[in-house]
Predict the structure of Membrane protein putative Glycosyl transferase domain.
Amino acid sequence: MEWAALAAVLIFGAVLNLWRLDRNGYGNVYYAAAARSMSGSWHNYVFGALDPAGFITVDKPPLALWVQAASVWMFGLSSWSLLVPAAAAGTVTVFALYHAVRAQVGALGGLVAALALTVTPVFVSTARFNNPDPFMVMLLVLAAWALVASVRQDSGRLLALAAVCVGLAFDAKMLQAYLVVPALGLVYLVAAPGGLRRRLALLGAATLALVVASGAWMALVDLTPKAHRPFVGGSTDNTVRDLVFGYNGLGRVDGSGGQGAFGAVLGSRRGPGRFFDATTGGLIAWLIPVAVAAALLGLWQRRRAPRTDPARAAVLLWGTWALLCWLVLSFARGAFHPYYVGEAAPAFAALVGVGFALAAAAWSAGGVGAGGRVPTTLAAVAGLVSTVAVAVLVLRRTPTWNAWLRPTLIVAAVISAGMLALAAWAARRAGGPGEPARGRAAPATAALAGVLALAVVLAAPTAFALTPLRHPSQGSDPVVGPPRTTSSPLDLALPAQLADNPALRALRQLTEAFPQLTRSAQPVTRGLSVDLVTPSLLAYLRAHREGAKFLVAVDTDPLAAPTIAHTGEAVMPMGGFLGSDPAPTVSGLAALVRSHALRHVLLLGGGASGGSLISALAAPIAGERDAWVRHSCTLVPAAKYGGGSGLVSLLGQAAPGGAPGVPGVGGAATGGAPASPFGAGGIPKPAIDISPVELLQDFRILADAFSLNLYDCQAPTA
């Protein structure tokens, strides 16, 4: 029966992860481009290069990409070859969590934990996407499983295996993987058998294994001469060491690694409520109340248990894991994406499983004292009520979506709580005259109430988790929940250096005037993963390449990635992900032009209205490169390659019907009449008080800021 239930959970999870997966296209095209580039060259594969020419790496270690690139190499480039590895990682994660929790509190706890993780929205959405997070989370849960086994079996080898798994997780997402290390170490130190000196010695050996597993790829890259490998994307000095401790490490926590205004935009709304806010709440908040209640109940029930008690170790492991993730991710000042909270999902799900297992054990054992039926019932009711309160809070943000769900949850919670209270009352009276039948019925009533309570806890997250199956998810962040449940960075307070940027002010004003544009603006705010190299431009670049190593150079990885992913051409991403990397420097760019390795440079924006938006968002090096190109290279007339406004691509690719275009701006990038992103109905009445003159001015500012400017650096300048 147990294995049948586990199989059902795993099959259900696999369906959630795989159903209509190809609707997500290439998912995060940034990683899709890297997987394609890495699949065609061992050099690119080892170093994790983004582009086929091996100019720059992605801003993460390549472990997750090694799996994806191998899949692309074996099966060819497709949605399935790119996305199925993450889906498989999700299934392995559920399986590993089941075994870890089962070893601590029994089969019931393992099954409930596995089911809770399976329907956690952030877990489903990331398992359907090609970001590194599913692989990091899988390896961390495998580490927890190995740690639990090492404690039970008193095995130093299993402890070392747990450390290696964390080290490999580091090779997927760097220092974020280390958030759970204190939880793993604490549990082993507290709950493992043997003397303190032996436990400390084994932890020391495991730490060495962790360092070796984490540092092997880093050492390989940093010890390779810089001239013989790609530039390390995201670093300031072309070393993985700087990437780890700067942009992708402590910079994410203290905000020092944002490199320009990008980090300030992406790092807003920090604080204790971040896991519950409009951006993140629908991803993770659902299970938190029950998880907290379960942790408190477990600590109270097992407070007098032996040091090696597995149930208390479970509370320490998963509770510390969840607490550390909440503390660091809630208060991090640096760049933050909502899906980062997925690292906490296994811990919350495990605590839910632990709570149900402890409650069932308390009812089976009977008694009304500490850890007995009455305290357990009180904890269960408190967790149930707070869970429904959080669910109602999140669901109220989209009141028309599944409007029946809120009242249903409330009614079901009241029934479940009432049944639990009735069962506890009947159990207490079972010892009186004429009460044995009532006492025998109490456990059955409590069990039925527990099943109903589990349904209440998981109903709302399941409803959210089903939405990715209906809505495609592309860009840099996986999408989950009903429409408009996630906010755009345009809704956040802009940092001081961007407050006066004309393009961003115009974009914000237009999205306030026409909420319909919010969906169209998502490519701008979710990584600029828009293919600016149109078919006519691509044909022009190929025809006029003249043997250059690079087809074209563009600002930032996200602007280069779509062309790389779709064509496999050697596009140079200048400046890395944020445009802030010194790759190339101005002198390096000039050297590439002199050696005829580079002929064409495509810049986005830079007109008189507001300058290049990339330059405004990134560090000064981006502006210096752009200025050199404009001064030293010749602007190619747009008519030669069918060019137009980049705003057409940025808004038009998400427009209804898929036709590029924007009202009031020049022709579409691919030629022909522009189509309106508002659809066939024309321009509606603005939602705010704004004059037609202001609207036209805003569109002109945006058209200028997002204009496509192709420069020929081999042609003589005027």
In short: Confidence is low (pLDDT under 50) at residues 485-494, 519-528, 647-679. The chain has two domains: 2-465, 525-712. The CA atoms of residues 151 and 363 lie 27 Å apart.
